[in-house]
TrEMBL record:
Catalysed transformations (reactions): pyridoxal + ATP = pyridoxal 5'-phosphate + ADP + H(+)
Cross-referenced PANTHER family: PHOSPHOMETHYLPYRIMIDINE KINASE, PYRIDOXINE KINASE
Transmembrane segments: none
Family to which this protein belongs: Belongs to the ThiD family.
Annotated EC: 2.7.1.35
Lineage: Bacteria, Bacillati, Bacillota, Bacilli, Bacillales
Gene3D superfamilies named among the record's database cross-references: 3.40.1190.20
Name the UniProt record assigns to this protein: pyridoxal kinase
Keywords from the UniProt entry: ATP-binding, Kinase, Magnesium, Metal-binding, Nucleotide-binding, Transferase
Any single Pfam family the record assigns to this protein: Phos_pyr_kin
GO MF: hydroxymethylpyrimidine kinase activity; phosphomethylpyrimidine kinase activity
């Protein structure tokens, strides 16, 4: 039996809801084989939930990249939190060297629960090195505004403008995700391929337990691409998956609640 192989290059969320943990759980739910390159470790102060960010040494990141890219290979991959400009440069160099395809860039800029960009210089590095040639870029509204340099996005028209700008920077497809900010009560995702704007819309789930939703969504798309789906098909499948995962979200502690990656499977049973 041939099992599709996926790779996530991202950070570790010690609480288990986001980052590499969310990616691996999602890959497992889709029946694809997940591999990892760990770039950052994020821990939390137990009494305040302040985020503590520890980048992984560059040579350790490179050793992991070589393990997967030179020793195994993959059918699709995604990036998440990349801890420094140097790590972005390293990852971009390996992607170019091996002429890799089915690349999903999730441009993680902040930890959920914070409103400050972790490393602003990373945005410029992503624009220069990772966005060009990416098969899909999956920003939320804030990340899209940073990549497109448009200021806050508050309307459908501004979402389309930002998607077009990001596409012009070299991404083959752009998926901007919104959870009820543009249209109250609606979770609206916009996919742009350079020619057509397509909307994927569902009713918003009334919950604050959405930790890891962005990571989970992009991982679901990556799994679909590894299984041979087109970008559009993978996005549509991932939309159904993340909607169910958010609906199954639960309280983890007094500070946070993650999505439930097994929700689709539990609902079926």
């Amino acid at each position: 039996m041939t099992v599709p192989k996926t790779l996530t290059i991202a950070g570790s969320d010690t609480s288990g809801g986001a980052g590499i943990q969310a990616d691996l759980k999602t890959f497992q739910e889709f029946g694809v084989y997940g591999m990892t390159v760990l770039t950052t470790i994020v821990a939390m102060a137990p009494r305040t939930w302040d985020h503590l960010v520890y980048p992984v040494a560059l040579d350790v990141v490179e050793a992991q990249l070589k393990t997967v890219l030179e020793g195994i290979g993959f059918d699709a991959m995604k990036t998440g939190m990349l801890g420094s400009v140097e790590i972005i440069e390293l990852v971009a160099g390996y992607l170019k060297k091996h002429d890799l395809k089915r690349i999903v860039i999730d441009p993680v800029m902040v930890c959920k629960g914070t409103d400050e960009v972790l490393q602003p210089e990373n945005t410029e590095a992503m624009l220069d090195l990772l966005i060009p040639g990416a098969d899909l870029v999956t920003p939320n509204l804030f990340e899209a505004s940073q990549l497109a340099k448009t200021g806050p996005i508050r309307s459908v028209e501004q979402m389309q403008e930002a998607a077009a700008i990001i596409h012009e920077r070299g991404a083959k497809h752009v998926l901007i995700k919104d959870r009820g900010k543009i249209k109250e009560g609606k979770a609206m995702d916009l996919l742009y391929d350079g020619k057509n704007f397509e909307w994927f819309e569902t009713d918003s789930v009334n919950t604050s337990f959405t930790h890891g939703a962005g990571c989970t969504s992009s991982a679901a798309v990556t799994a679909g691409l590894a299984q041979g789906l087109s970008v559009r098909e993978a996005v549509e499948q991932a939309k159904q998956f993340i909607t169910q995962a958010i609906a199954g979200g639960f309280r983890l502690n007094e500070f946070v609640g993650p999505t439930l990656h097994a929700a689709h499977r539990l609902q079926q049973s």
